[in-house]
Task: inverse folding
């Protein structure tokens, strides 16, 4: 292969683009203090009915429907469905229009609940563990609308299935982030714009994006639509727990940019330019702030002037992303973003104020383009400039869907560590894992989409792929098997002294790999399979010749709980480890450096399950 | 497949180049046949039909004992192509999911592949036609840098394996690094997984090859590598790039050469700008420099190329080397063919051994492939399979991938068959008897010699260029050999041997490839040729030999393509550029769109700014050797293409 020449500019470019993407799709926490609902009591809610409780801890029973076992305390909000009783929903005292909502929730087995934005638009919460193709009625779906006038079987309409099933097992904390935009009304009270779920992210993956809601979903508080309404948590269908409920309301009008004029000048920008002496190549006025105004591709700069109409006084942040050059912003005759910088803040009072933006294009190799986004008091970060030219480059993604059992080796980044001898094993059951062939360790498991190979196969690529589903990482890659002189001995970070040698893998008739390696003069066979019913993975490690004092590191986390014999809840209820057959020996939870390790002596064979 | 066939009909610019060079040097005299035969009159590029949807970004190729073809891809697949030379080959996916497989070899019923991080043995034990064992023979460290490509394996006579490992690219990519052992090395690996570091100093050794039980490789031009070349790999040798030497202190290193040994003689050029940020060091035109062979005085382990493959002429990113088997490709059995990725072409090489070291001559052989050639393999029927990809790099053939076949039509092309070094010159052997009149005329020949710099700068211009004086020529009685007596031969130098005036006896055709590049590592001992029967006739004596097209080009007023074409050819510009079409580099019309001034273009020829062309993966080499007059002409031509 020939070597790199252009790699770094290209990478830089991509990073810029990513920056734009992130900025456009996440909400600003800079200026918006999140409002976390205090769950020391239920005072944030309207007349809570008897099915709503507070708890200090909750735990599900994987064998019992609709059951969460509560420990006394506060901080967790629980609705318990009781046999024969119909519970009631919970409404917040406050009303919300545009809203970012972020919370943790835990489903009981077989349970059903929902988050109703404005009491009207439901994002479904359901025990959808093990579902392969999720529907609108599954966990993370936007529930369908309902028309009673239609014949049976045709009453339900609209709704939006999540893009993939990112759900976790009952009894595990799941994390959801929702960005909601309320419907808009004119002064006469007529709706001018439908409500939208701008974005919903479940357990780390985007499951809904920019979904328009033509009206309230089935089971709405009311079928009328309003500018603001209470948050409503469904409590009448099943047992579910919530915690860390964070709300950020966006109820203030956005600034507008008016009377935009531009002048494009040839050459390189210098801050001390006297515009009176300069002849513009092109001039004009525009409806939107856009790089798409001049004929020049490079070595030019454009000066935009206009009026920024501020309706809500307060601190504003500006985020400028100029492709292939730099830029600056002057507001009210004060520099807010200096040349070479990208971000700036300004405290602005209401009214019309002067606005000036310079976009200087320097580098030949990037197409012109820039993005300016603004966030302010009660104003969600939004793109105020032309979205068509927000960055210079777009790439067709190379996505690998495991329609059949599919294995793919690549570099795999586990946080800051690049696993160089990694293989990802994908299944049409939408359960996948990555195995580190250097350490005999499963470094991550996930549900949903298999792999995004764009980083590896676009252009030269960087040799890596990444999961496109909802990932559960198991921490720093570390040797899975080790001999310990005593059960307290430190788990070694590397393979030194173990004579570790990877031997590769064999495929069964369905292309599922069984890994082999040699260590301490024995052969280890390491086989992981999707559990029937898609609840997670079953792993069996067998040793050809017994090795004295050999241990398997099952899990490493800050918290490891033991809800029942042979069952472990790891890392603040992120996943379960279930011992299936340890050959009669018992795993040990030990503390090292303030965190916990779950280890088990290994004689001939050990098998366990990862449930998530 | 979704390739267009236009690439198959791709214009043979190398041949055009050489013909035009003939005009440049000789004017119109001495060149009578406008219809001389071309490459494609003898060697046809055929397709290997493949099912739609398969992505054949070829990284490895090998022919199996039964004639099937194993093809590995950058997407990690291994295909077995049954009946690959028929019009209906059958593609069977043998393995998949591997990490960018850039080589494959067959041994005892198994396939062995180099993935990025290991040598893997693939076996089909249940006989369902696809591998079920993916056995790790040996896993080597990788840091995870994108440029850490791994090539091979090649199987040694003792059954062991060789792989070569690229350097990684840090943010200052112009100074690649060996982040982990044994990047920049060749490894020898036994069947049972014991690895022995074999040799160091590699940069991007894509073209690992086993020729008659001896290991060779081609490297890619870059820092410390002035041009591509063919080099023999010997245990304990050093191949020039110092980055890999950081591991010679390891106990199993077969050599002890250190980076300091190199840097004490040659500045590593860790240039920085005024803010202290690393910058790509430019070539310094007027400086004291060393050629690689001169470093051998200080580092005897340094192994210099057997045959240089001049950059921009015989490729820009040389790849696999194969030996022509007996019975195929006519008059060239035993010689070597070398693929090239960037120029989508194949070179031919004749090697001989003088004083125990290889050296020899290289020619262009066939261009016009649809994508960049990375791998070559002989099919059972004697045709040559080319495995191709250009993703991320670009190539003269514009398709991103391909599997093609080169077929000889059993007609003998008029070529130099071989060039052998003589104590006082060269002996040129032809494939057909030559016309006595042209062959006995010294004016039909011209020779000059040059070398490349050995330095930390990316690539090298040809330097120390000197014309050689041809004192006489003696033609053999059968007209098959011309013995040239040449003054001022220079050991280690590349001798560019032009035979523009030579015609064959039968058709008065010019040579298909009239220029050879002979690397003279050793000048053989022995008696000089007696002057008996030597012709010293020189029809050009006393005339202006270097006038020709260059002079004509500068005389007319308006600059047109026709008027500068010969300048572009002479300076090898057209190896990478075309007036209107994207090639390895941008089309001249696209350069014109940048609206550079004539002075800017002249400066960019000497010091290109590849960072301005990120869509083109192969950077232009600095061309300080282009004369100011030529550079001005080229600049004026490009300027004339601007849309007014």
Result:
């Amino acid at each position: 292969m020939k070597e790199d020449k252009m790699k770094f500019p290209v990478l830089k470019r991509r990073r810029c683009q990513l920056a734009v993407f992130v900025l456009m799709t996440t909400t600003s926490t800079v200026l918006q203090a999140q409002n976390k609902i205090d769950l020391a009591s239920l005072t944030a809610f309207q007349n809570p009915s008897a099915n709503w409780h507070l708890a200090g801890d909750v735990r599900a029973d994987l064998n019992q429907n609709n059951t969460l076992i509560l420990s006394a305390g506060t901080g967790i909000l629980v609705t318990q469905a009781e046999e024969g009783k119909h519970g009631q929903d919970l409404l917040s005292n406050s009303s919300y229009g545009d809203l970012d909502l972020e919370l943790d929730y835990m489903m009981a087995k077989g349970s059903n609940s929902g988050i109703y934005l404005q009491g009207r638009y439901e994002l479904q919460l359901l025990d959808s563990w093990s579902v392969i193709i999720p529907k609108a009625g599954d966990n993370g779906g936007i529930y369908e609308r309902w028309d009673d006038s239609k014949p049976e079987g045709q009453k339900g309409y609209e709704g939006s299935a999540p893009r993939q099933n990112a759900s976790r097992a009952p009894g595990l904390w799941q994390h959801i982030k929702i960005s909601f935009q309320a419907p808009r009304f004119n002064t006469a009270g007529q709706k001018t714009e439908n409500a939208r779920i701008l974005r919903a992210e479940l357990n780390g993956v985007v499951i809904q994006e920019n979904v328009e809601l033509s009206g309230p979903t089935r089971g709405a508080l009311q079928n009328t639509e309003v500018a603001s309404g209470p948050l409503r948590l469904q409590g009448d269908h099943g047992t579910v727990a919530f915690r860390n409920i964070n709300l950020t309301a966006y109820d203030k009008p956005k600034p507008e940019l008016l009377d935009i004029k531009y002048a494009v000048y040839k050459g390189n920008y210098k801050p001390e330019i006297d515009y009176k002496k300069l002849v513009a190549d092109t001039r004009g006025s525009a409806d939107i702030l856009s790089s798409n105004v001049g004929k020049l591709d490079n070595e030019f700069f454009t000066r935009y002037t206009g009026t920024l109409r501020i309706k809500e006084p307060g601190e504003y942040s500006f985020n400028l992303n100029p492709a292939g050059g730099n830029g600056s912003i002057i507001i009210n005759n004060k520099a807010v973003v200096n040349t070479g910088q990208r971000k700036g803040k300004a405290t602005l009072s209401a009214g019309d104020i002067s606005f000036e933006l310079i976009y200087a294009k320097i580098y030949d190799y990037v197409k012109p383009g820039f993005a300016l986004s603004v966030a302010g008091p009660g104003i969600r970060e939004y793109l105020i400039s032309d979205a068509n030219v927000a960055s210079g480059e777009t790439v067709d993604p190379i996505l690998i869907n495991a329609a059949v059992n599919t294995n793919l080796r690549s570099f795999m980044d586990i946080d800051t560590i690049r696993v160089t001898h990694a293989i990802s094993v994908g299944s049409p059951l939408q359960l996948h894992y990555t195995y580190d062939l250097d350490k005999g360790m499963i470094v991550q498991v996930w549900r949903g989409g298999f792999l995004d190979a764009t980083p590896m196969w676009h252009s030269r690529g960087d040799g890596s792929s990444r999961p496109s589903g909802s990932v559960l990482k198991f921490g720093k890659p570390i040797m899975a098997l080790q001999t310990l002189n005593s059960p307290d001995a430190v788990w070694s970070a590397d393979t030194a002294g173990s004579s570790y040698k990877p031997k590769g893998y064999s495929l069964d008739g369905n292309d599922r790999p069984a890994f082999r390696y040699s260590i301490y003069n024995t052969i280890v066979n390491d086989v992981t399979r999707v559990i029937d019913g898609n609840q997670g993975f079953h792993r069996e490690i067998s040793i050809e010749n017994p090795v004295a004092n050999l241990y398997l590191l099952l899990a490493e986390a800050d918290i490891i709980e033991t809800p029942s014999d042979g069952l472990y809840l790891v890392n603040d209820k992120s996943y379960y480890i279930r011992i299936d057959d340890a050959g009669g020996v018992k795993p040990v939870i030990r503390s090292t450096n303030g965190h916990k390790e779950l280890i088990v002596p290994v004689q001939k064979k050990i098998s366990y399950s990862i449930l998530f | 497949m979704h390739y267009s066939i236009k690439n198959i009909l791709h214009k043979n610019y190398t041949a055009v180049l050489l013909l035009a060079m003939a005009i440049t040097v000789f004017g119109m005299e001495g060149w009578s046949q406008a219809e001389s035969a071309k490459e494609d009159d003898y060697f046809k590029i055929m397709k290997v039909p493949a099912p739609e949807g398969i992505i054949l970004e070829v990284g490895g190729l090998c022919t199996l004992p039964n004639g099937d073809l194993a093809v590995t891809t950058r997407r990690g697949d291994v295909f077995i192509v049954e009946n690959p030379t028929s019009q209906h080959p059958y593609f069977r996916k043998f393995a998949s999911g591997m990490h960018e497989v850039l080589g494959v070899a067959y041994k005892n019923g198994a396939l062995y592949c180099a993935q990025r991080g290991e040598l893997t043995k693939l076996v089909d034990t249940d006989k369902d036609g696809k591998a079920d064992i993916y056995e790790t023979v040996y896993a080597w460290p990788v840091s995870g840098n994108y440029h850490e490509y791994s090539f091979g394996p090649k199987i040694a006579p003792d059954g062991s394996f060789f792989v070569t490992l690229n350097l990684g690219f840090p943010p200052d990519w112009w100074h690649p690094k060996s982040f982990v052992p044994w990047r920049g090395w060749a490894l020898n690996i036994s069947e049972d997984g014991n690895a022995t570091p074999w040799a160091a100093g590699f940069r991007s050794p894509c073209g690992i090859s086993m020729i008659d039980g001896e290991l060779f490789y081609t490297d890619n031009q870059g820092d410390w590598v002035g041009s591509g070349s063919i080099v023999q790999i010997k245990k304990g040798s050093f191949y020039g790039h110092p980055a890999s030497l950081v591991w010679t202190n390891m106990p199993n290193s077969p050599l002890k050469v250190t980076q300091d040994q190199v840097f004490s003689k040659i500045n590593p050029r860790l240039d920085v700008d005024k803010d202290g940020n690393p910058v790509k060091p430019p070539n310094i035109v007027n400086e004291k420099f060393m050629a690689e062979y001169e470093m051998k005085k200080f580092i005897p382990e340094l192994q210099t190329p057997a045959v240089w493959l001049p950059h921009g002429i015989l490729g820009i990113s040389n790849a696999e080397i194969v030996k022509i088997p007996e019975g195929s490709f006519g008059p060239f059995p035993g010689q070597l063919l070398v693929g090239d990725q960037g120029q989508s072409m194949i070179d031919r090489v004749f090697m001989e051994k003088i004083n125990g070291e290889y050296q020899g001559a290289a020619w262009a052989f066939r261009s016009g492939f649809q994508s960049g050639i990375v791998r070559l393999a002989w099919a059972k029927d004697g045709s040559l399979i080319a495995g191709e990809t250009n993703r991320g790099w670009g190539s003269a053939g514009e398709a991103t991938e391909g599997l093609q076949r080169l077929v000889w039509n059993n007609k003998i092309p008029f070529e130099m068959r071989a060039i052998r070094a003589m104590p006082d010159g060269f002996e040129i052997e032809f494939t057909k008897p030559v016309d006595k009149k042209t062959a006995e005329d010294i004016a039909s020949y011209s020779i000059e010699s040059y070398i490349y710099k050995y330095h930390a700068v990316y690539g090298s211009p040809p330097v120390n260029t000197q014309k050689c004086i041809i004192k006489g020529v003696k033609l053999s009685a059968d007209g098959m050999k011309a013995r040239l007596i040449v003054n001022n031969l220079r050991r280690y130098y590349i001798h560019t041997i032009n035979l523009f005036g030579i015609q064959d006896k039968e058709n008065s055709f010019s040579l298909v490839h009239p220029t050879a590049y002979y690397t003279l590592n050793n000048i053989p001992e022995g008696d000089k040729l007696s002057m008996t029967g030597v012709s010293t006739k020189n029809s050009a004596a006393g005339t202006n030999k270097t006038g020709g097209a260059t002079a004509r080009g500068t005389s007319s007023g308006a600059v047109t393509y026709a008027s500068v074409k010969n300048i572009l050819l002479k300076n090898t510009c057209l190896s990478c550029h075309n007036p209107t079409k994207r090639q390895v580099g941008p089309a001249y019309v696209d350069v014109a769109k940048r609206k550079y001034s004539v002075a800017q273009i002249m400066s960019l020829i000497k010091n290109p700014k590849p960072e301005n062309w990120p869509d083109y993966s192969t950077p232009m080499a600095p061309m300080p050797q282009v004369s100011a007059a030529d550079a001005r002409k080229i600049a004026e031509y490009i300027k004339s293409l601007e849309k007014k």
